[in-house]
């Protein structure tokens, strides 16, 4: 696997090539499909240019780039619609549509995304992890980043990893190696490892969810906004495919019920945590359908086509990546061109 920096350079080169050749214009009619679901996580200002060690920077964009994204959608003829309209829009001809989704339930979505979305009159969906809203959840990728920022050496004997972490370059390598090794194994071991690293670094991992995520009260206030759809993102944010069927069912079914109790309304839509093929698969798609959700979204990349109307619980999305906050990247993503090869290999993004 290419290191993250090399992959980022490769993606950036691809976006630039698409822009330079005009492929985002002349291939868009066949690549774009009926619509697109965009994925966001954090939206927050950059107080300073990020340093070399910022391994989760891909999950954060600025309010200014969100503004540019919304402006670009309208300029390219997209109608921004609530998630509830997606099933109908897939079966009707007309202008292309976009659905805006934000995962996990971060407070900066309220503080920095909501004003921009309101100014554009754009409806949006917030996928909420129940345990984050109650302040009891674990954001292990943040734990890993913060622990390595403090530590001078990262030791993970359970995966045979022992590497220096002095200076930003070494820390970036240590994070990438740790992330890759831990993701390959059981999730319980991953969470135990990041918690142990936090303890070694003197970091209280139990405070991170309360620091970063919206509380139940804040979410209930947000629910009064008719432009916002609050939806479910499991109880504790596990990679469902790594767990047995009983655990996955509990996360999906009980997550819906308990979030409904917290919000005062039962969520109708669902997002699979992490959402790639190693984190959610056909078993989990069936569980979400059986739980009564109207739609469920993955992070498998691609635009939406009429055939997705038969697969509403395995919908692809397009991630707006914080590493590529450029007009060239935005034009490419909205054209659908980068996903032509993927869609040729995985016709429906469901397997």
Could you explain the architecture of this structure?
The chain has 351 residues and is of the alpha/beta class. The chain contains 16 helices and twelve strands. The protein has helices spanning 4-21, 23-26, 28-31, 63-75, 86-90, 107-120, 130-133, 140-150, 168-183, 187-201, 208-212, 216-222, 245-263, 282-291, 327-335, 340-345; strands at residues 35-40, 42-43, 60-61, 79-80, 97-104, 124-128, 153-156, 161-164, 228-232, 269-271, 295-301, 315-319. The strands form three sheets. Strands 1, 4, 5, 6, 9, 10, 11 and 12 form an eight-stranded parallel sheet that branches. A two-stranded parallel sheet has the order 2-3. A hairpin with a 4-residue loop joins β7 (153-156) and β8 (161-164). The two termini are 22 Å apart. The relative contact order is 0.17. Residues 345-351 have low confidence and may be disordered.
Identify the notable features of this structure and list them briefly.
16 helices; eight-stranded parallel sheet; disordered C terminus; alpha/beta; 351 residues; 46% helix; globular; two-stranded parallel ribbon
